[in-house]
Amino acid sequence: MTRFTVNNQPVEYQLDPQTPLLWALRDASNLTGTKYGCGVGECGACTVDVDGEAVRSCQVAIGALEGTFVTTIEGLSRDRSHPVQAAFLASNLGQCGYCIPGLVMATAALLRTNRDPSDAAIAEALTNLCRCGIQPRLTEAVRRAARLARGDETLEPAPKPGTDHDEAARAVPALSPR
User: Fold this and answer.
1) CATH value at residue 132
2) Single pTM value for the model
3) Quick check: is 169 in a domain?
């Protein structure tokens, strides 16, 4: 049995210790925000936070995580109030959305250690792949997340998950041209 903490809850997995964290999270804990992409650690869709570091969950066995703290996209903020989630939403970054949880987690880990990352630091930390082509907007969204985290910028809160579509549309301010 492998014991560690997931999203501030102690867990004990009765799975083979060689089971990749990705599958323990998705199949045993029903935390499906962590996505399966390539299975070889290249795409970053499965990125989670392990003790403050961005980790590709398809590449780490649960047996190696005994006593650690794991945070998934669900544990970052369920109401989308985390600065990274808020910035990504405000920047209209998502296309299909499949890579977004991994990008959010990688960005959160970056901003924990670097509150004002350069473009080069962002490029180095965010090696996740996005097939929809959000990379041109990604750097600005990360910079916006950094400003939010530092308190240099504020945003209206995003509609809560489950909000009626019409109600959510009324709550979003009209975009003004730059």
Assistant:
1) 1.10.150.120
2) 0.86
3) no
For 118-164, how does the pLDDT look when each residue is reduced to its tens digit (9 = 90+)?
A: 999 999 999 998 888 898 899 999 999 999 999 999 987 766 777 77
The structural domain count of the chain equals: 2
Per-residue model confidence as pLDDT tens digits over 11-29: 999 999 999 999 999 999 9
Range of the domain at 54: 2-76
Phi/psi for 47 (5° steps) reads: -65, 130
CA quadruple 72, 125, 45, 15: dihedral sign? negative
Q: Which amino acid is at 35?
A: K
Same domain, 57 and 101: no
Report the C-alpha gap between 105 and 110 in whole angstroms: 9
50 and 112 housed in the same domain: no
Using alpha carbons only, give the angle 175, 93, 174 rounded to the nearest 5 degrees.
10
Q: Determine the residue type at 144.
A: R
